[in-house]
Structures are given as C-alpha cells and as structure tokens.
Design a protein that fits this description.
CATH topology: Nuclear Transport Factor 2, Chain: A
Largest sheet: 4 strands, antiparallel
Strand content: 25-35%
CATH class: Alpha Beta
Number of strands: 4
Order of helices and strands: HHHHEEEE
Structural class: alpha+beta
Length: 138
C-alpha cells in the first residue's frame, strides 16, 4: 500500500511540475521560419501568406503574384535570427537572390521580419506569424 502511495505522489508531483513550466513557444520558431523561407523560395506565395497575420496576406499575394511567370528566386537564406523567449517575439532578416525576366541579372532583396507568437489557448502552444507587410518588391 505504501508503494502505491509513493508512486501516486511521484506521478502527481511530475504532473504539477509540468504545469509550472515556461510558456510553450509553439511548434518552434526555427521550424516555422524555415518553412516560411522555403515557401517563398519555391514561389508558393499562397503557402507563404499563411505565415503572415491576416491583414497582410493580400499584400504579399499582390506584391509577388504580379511576377508569377517572370520571377525566379535562385537562393534564400536568413542572414540573422534573434529569438526572445520572454516576450514571444523574434527578429530576422531574409535575403533573396533572384532574377526577373527578361533580365538574366541576379539581384538581391532583403526582408527584415518581425515574428510574434500568437497564443492558441492555455492547453496548446501558440503559432508563429510574421507581423507586418513585406517591403516593396523589387
């Protein structure tokens, strides 16, 4: 009987310790920001727009949709990324190397991105979203 009591006490203390942990930062900033970069890299602008807050999605689609057949992104990478776990925010800079037909010249375009963790509810992690509209392209 004592063993059962101690086992129950251990399980209860582990459950309580889990409730007292830090805020869950969601599926992971690194994972989310990488998926966003890949969507932009492969010109999946509808997919990339899903990473933006609702009020900025149409602007992304307008900015890049007009170049649908002529824009070719050859490389995309983050130049820096800084996560602030206390505030649930992050800053990064994404660099694209691209060419826009009919010109074969490769150019660079930079997007300084502010990320924010949007809470879902108390029992689930939040989701990371891009805060703000993309800068003018190109």
């Amino acid at each position: 009987m004592k063993k059962l009591f101690y086992l129950s006490a251990c399980i209860l203390s582990l459950m309580l310790a889990g409730c007292a942990s830090k805020v869950d930062l969601g599926p992971g900033y690194q994972h989310t920001s990488k998926r966003f970069m890949e969507a932009m890299r492969w010109q999946d602008y509808r997919g990339a727009a899903e990473f933006l807050q609702d009020e900025y999605r149409a602007q992304l689609l307008e900015s890049f949709g007009q170049y649908k057949d002529n824009l070719h992104i050859v490389e995309a990478e983050y130049l820096f990324s800084q996560l602030d776990k206390k505030t649930g925010t992050a800053k990064s800079e994404l660099e694209f190397k691209y060419y826009l037909l009919p010109s074969p010249q490769v150019k660079e375009w930079h997007w300084k991105i502010d990320w924010v963790l949007i809470p879902v509810d108390a029992n689930q992690p939040g989701t990371w979203q891009v805060q703000g509209a993309p800068p003018t392209f190109p």
